[in-house]
Amino acid sequence: MKPKDQNTEPAFCPTRAMVELRHSISIGSRGSSSPMKRDGDLSPLIPDSQPNDDDDHDRYSSKDRDRPFWYHFHSICPFFNDDARFSPHNSRICLVLLLLLLLLAGLISVLSIVNRLNAPYLCRKDGIVLHCPHVKESPSLWENPFSATTSWKPCAEHRDGGMSNLPSENETAGYIFIHAEGGLNQQRIAICNAVAVAKIMNATLILPVLKQDQIWKDQTKFEDIFDVDHFIDYLKDDVRIVRDIPKWFTDKSELFTSIRRTVKNIPKYAPAQFYIDNVLPRLKEKKIMALKPFVDRLGYDNVPPEINRLRCRVNYHALKFLPEIEQMADLLASRMRNRTGSSNPYMALHLRFEKGMVGLSFCDFVGTREEKAIMAEYRKKEWPRRYKNGSHLWQLALQKRKEGRCPLEPGEVAVLLLGMGYPKETQIYVASGQVYGGHNRMAPLRNMFPNLVTKEELATKEELVGFRKHVTSLAALDFLVCLKSDVFVMTHGGNFAKLIIGARRYMGHRQKSIKPDKGLMAKSFGDPYVGWATFVEDVVVTHQTRAGLPEETFPNYDLWENPLTPCMCKA
């Protein structure tokens, strides 16, 4: 059974007061119209001169132009008055005209109603505010309104039966090679972009290499995570993909080290035309080139729609995790749904509060003087240029928190979920690294929501031993369990969260994907005069439009978080 929606005041006493947001409406003063002035001072009883026939004609023509449409209809059809001179023939003409007018008005009304009923559900932005169409359904904790999720369907999938017009491997412009850097999700985005760039230049793509990251320190290969056969086969009608560098290119080390074989001047979010004008000529000359670096080196709204659709095809259809990863994720999700002895929904929480994230944010958090001193030294060591002498950091931290740019602490997440109405019994899967502050930092969240579990608590050591060989394999398990959850809650930005939200939108918008308004939270926690009831009302109203509903795209939008326009069609 699903936990009941609870919007009542919880039985705990918050130790910190929260903001009472005041919504004021400014009322403009109403202007009054001044009386009209006479055109002249002449008396209407004493004409200045006798009017001629042309003057009369102009005067009456002007009056006729100012008369309403129904006056002219009245003159055409005099049976509306007591004039008995009209003929039966004129009467029939007038009745036909009237009937036609009524039919036209009715048709316009029907078409207007049909258009409104058939208009797809779409939230639209007004500045930073998102306005969503009203629905009659009562709000649910676990699902988006059904009527809001039936207007769009995925349409980026591969079409069977189509004829491929791709040239053979030897007839393409050449071979391109990339290093997919960063963590698993940044690597995933790089792979999608590499396929798109290969299509733009009509090139053959060498299977990307997953480069070791300084933080992850993981030597994972493409085939250790993804199903290579499915990847190549699914995209066979879109792009030529080969598993390795061609045999005729004997000096493979040159591809990684030689400037002559590397394109390094690709700007971030480059348009498709940049590759055609600057990279393609070099590729045709050298026949094989490496693109480095390749993080976010392809834009979104400056490439053709079919290229963005191809990126979605790669992300949502071609890139599949290995069967053993998929099976283990299914097992973990099944255990989450049966933790109460019967079927229950579950929430997935992406908690980004690791030491590196806290340090990089340069935000201030609750802690002892000793903790703050240790964190200051850590920041000074890792980011000396940003740290400088540290004198400006307090003001910077206040500004970032006010703007909602700081990660949510575990205790803040707990208060937010309570404000939304989630009961204490909610089953929550936590995807995170090692939380900064350990058990003490997690205590408020665990006290309010005791049913918190991680993959290490759901599975035995024996079940996970095969996945510990690669850190990215464990990250893949978190990704899939979050993807399958009834409700997904992010606490800070990043590729993991936006890929999850985008995929859940692509699957139909039914599943809730909550993106907290951290600006509202900062404002609420920072004011000493808030009441719990006011806080709850603000949280519920604000987050009704932040749950992964269909949302229009905008210039420089993020394709991975909102695939609506290029990759989804009206249902």
TrEMBL record:
Keywords carried by this UniProt record = Carbohydrate metabolism, Fucose metabolism, Glycoprotein, Glycosyltransferase, Membrane, Transferase, Transmembrane, Transmembrane helix
InterPro entries recorded: FucosylTrfase_pln, GDP-Fuc_O-FucTrfase, GT106_glycosyltransferase
Give the stretches traversing the membrane.
Answer: 93-114
Localization, UniProt: Membrane
The terms under GO molecular function for this entry are: glycosyltransferase activity
Region annotation Disordered: residue ranges?
26-61
Gene Ontology cellular component terms for the protein in this record = membrane
According to its UniProt record, what is one Pfam family this protein matches?
O-FucT
Keyword Glycoprotein assigned: yes
Q: What GO biological process terms are annotated to this protein in UniProt?
A: fucose metabolic process
Q: What is its main location?
A: membrane
The membrane topology noted for this protein in its Swiss-Prot or TrEMBL record is:
Single-pass membrane protein
Q: In which pathway does it act?
A: Glycan metabolism
Q: Which family does it belong to?
A: Belongs to the glycosyltransferase GT106 family.
The molecule here is called: O-fucosyltransferase family protein
Q: Which organism is it from?
A: Juglans regia (English walnut)
Q: Which gene encodes it?
A: LOC108991511
